[in-house]
Structure prediction request, 224 residues.
Amino acid sequence: SAVISQKPSRDICQRGTSLTIQCQVDSQVTMMFWYRQQPGQSLTLIATANQGSEATYESGFVIDKFPISRPNLTFSTLTVSNMSPEDSSIYLCSVEIRAREQFFGPGTRLTVL
Amino acid sequence: QKEVEQDPGPLSVPEGAIVSLNCTYSNSAFQYFMWYRQYSRKGPELLMYTYSSGNKEDGRFTAQVDKSSKYISLFIRDSQPSDSATYLCAMSAQGNYQLIWGAGTKLIIKP
Prediction:
C-alpha cells in the first residue's frame, strides 16, 4: 500500500479565486490520479498525472480550469482555477501501486461561496 | 446505460447478518475488479482486488466475480456496526488503467 496525504483537508473560497491542492506520497509512483466526488456521489476522474509528461484530462475537464503539476515521483498538485459554486466538491488524489490497485488520499473538501 | 450499475441503497441490516453487495457491468473486456470502502468524510479504501474470475476471501469479506453473467459480489459475514460505510465497486479492462466506478451502496449495520 501507500500513505498519501493531501493539503489542505478543507477550504472555503470565494468565487473567482483559485486553490491549489497538494498530494504527497510516501513512495515513488508512476501514475497519480485526480478525482472529484460530489456529496453522496461516486468518483469522477479529472486527469491522470504521470511524472515527466503532460497530464491527460478526461472529457469535460480542461487544463485551463484544472492545471496539474507533477514535478517528481512522490508529489503532485491540482489547481482549481477561477472557482464558482459548482466547483464545490471533494477532490481526491490516488496512486496506482500495482496493476489497477489505486490507493487514495483523505480528500480535500472545497466549498466555494 | 451505464457501464457499471450499482444500487445506491441505503441497505440496512441488523448486526451479525450476512451482507451481499453487487454490481453488474456491460463491458466484457473488464478483467480487474475491485471493492472499495469509504467512510464518511474519508477517502476510499481498497478492500478487495480480483483479477479475472473466481472468488477471493479475506477474513469476513468474500469477493466473487462471475464473468459469464457480468456480475460481481461482495459478501460480509458477521457484519458489525463498524462496517457501516459506502461500498464502491470499480473495474478496468486489460491495457486500460482507468477505473470505471459504480455509484456506491450505502450500508448501515444496526446494533
Observations:
- The two ends of chain B are 37 Å apart (CA to CA).
- Chain B has a mean pLDDT of 94.
